[in-house]
Design goal:
Layout lengths: L3 E5 L15 E5 L3 E6 L4 E9 L32 E5 L10 H6 L6 E5 H5 L1 H12 L5 E8 L16 E8 L4 E8 L11 E2 L9
Length: about 200
Amino acid sequence: MKRFLYILPFLIIGLFGAAQQSDVVRVKNEVFEVMYSQSLEQPLYIKYRSTNRPTNVNRGHMNFYTEKSIKTSDDMDYKGNIYDKGHGAPAATFSDNETNLKQTFSYLNSIMQDQYLNRGEWRLLEEQERKWDDKESLTVIINLNFDNPAKRVPTNAAIPSKLHKHIHFEKSNVWKCYSFPNARPDKGWESYEVKCNQKEHKF
């Protein structure tokens, strides 16, 4: 598995809702690219492409795994609370082979996500992406906002306050953008569409 790791020695302020310590790593593999905060133990930004891949394998009993030399969230952070290990790059989108599927289970790709959002409107939007990519490939960007100071579970992982998803239709060069509070949805995913902010399209 090819992977590129960069240590970014600077403070990130504003876009993600709080100043982050200079411990951000940038990782790219065959499935996703992520900018990850080791102090928050959460991704700040995840990018992937949805390209109408065939479904050849299923997730079975596959579990999330930690990464050597990178401080991420882990199993303990998700116990006894309302938060799911929400996939950034969706498992179902990368079920064309076992290698790709497994990479989606890295904790680098795990978002501390309200269970009702993860299993509800967020999941339904992911399903819609896979319908859209039947016609043209998509580039999908997720960025997370955190309160300042960030709210955390007792085991220290930070809880995002908002999740933003920006979807680029590559052939038609159109963007669709959505903003979800990290809470139980009270309306359909279509109602969370917002005007796109081009500054959040760059990584």
